[in-house]
Amino acid sequence: MKELTPSTLLAVFTEMFGSGIFWAMVGLAAMITAAYLFVLIRDRKMSMRKFLIAQLSMPFGAIAAVVFVMLMTHSRPADIGGPIDVIVLLGVALAGAVGTAILVYTAQSLLRSARTGH
């Protein structure tokens, strides 16, 4: 792999997760992002209480993302071979943490409005 292009990354992720799971994750991420944008536009402000709860969920999302990737790649912590592996796993953890925070914030906003009827 001489160049890191979007098509190369697409091929690697499709090979690593399988086509079905990869595209399901992309679709799910797109739906959650659209719902988050909907909530932000609808509410016109961020609720700090919901944001705090979303932040408290971040460590769970980080751990879940790393475990998911390790399960999908049939890896163990003993397989971490060098600094690049640690950097990649930290990136996966960061993405999982941020994604979980967005999911939790969005779910709180949508569920609260469904209960109150707004």
Q: Summary?
A:
This protein is mainly alpha-helical and 118 residues long. The chain is built from five helices and no strands. It is 81% helix and 0% strand.
Provide a descriptive summary of the structure in words.
The structure is a single chain. The protein has helices at 6-17, 19-43, 48-56, 58-72, 83-116. The chain is mostly helical and 118 residues long. It is elongated, with a radius of gyration of 17 Å. The model has no long low-confidence stretch (mean pLDDT 89).
Topology:
Elements: H1 6-17, H2 19-43, H3 48-56, H4 58-72, H5 83-116
Helix pairs in contact: 1-2, 2-5, 3-5, 4-5
Q: What is the quaternary state of this protein?
A: single chain
Order of helices and strands: HHHHH
- In percent, how helical is the residue content? over 70%
Rg (CA only): 17 Å
Key traits:
118 residues, mainly alpha, 5 helices
